[in-house]
Hints:
mainly beta; 3 helices
Amino acid sequence: MSIKFKEIKKYLARNVRLSICFEDGYYHNYLMVSDIPDKKYDDLYVFGVGMIDVEFSMDVFKEPQELEGIISSTKDDDLRPAIEIVLHKKPRKIERKVADYLMFKDLKPYLQIGRNFTVLNREDWSGDEYERREQISEKHDEMYVYGISMENNYSKDEMVDSLDIEYDTYMKKRMILVLSKEPR
């Protein structure tokens, strides 16, 4: 049993930008999970979870244009970091260990390969930092997913610092995975 969007949606932080991407390359950007129309993507399967820079209107109160067949300019847009959820009509061939709740060991294969993860224990807010998915300790596998977000990465990152990037970018962020001993 694969993860459907309707299941992972409840774990996404309410205050983080989202980019919903599809296998054909199209995507829809949202300022918050509450901006996603009810049940819009619920029956699609999660193919991946990561972070990316995507364009958002500088005027958040303006109705976005329908961009079908229109060449867009960035004069009214701004690139901002977002959680990226890649969706497909067909599930990935990844076996779930638990069907009723989302365990970290079931989410882990869907995470981007790398850069910068913080895994937090909700009970005491202790955390571990990892640069790549493959480095995330198996000690977290038996915990339940409680939340998925992103925040500024305050750890020294020589690669990002060497680029001398002045604007906000996903490269300056880390994915936050909040886990719990009890299901949500």
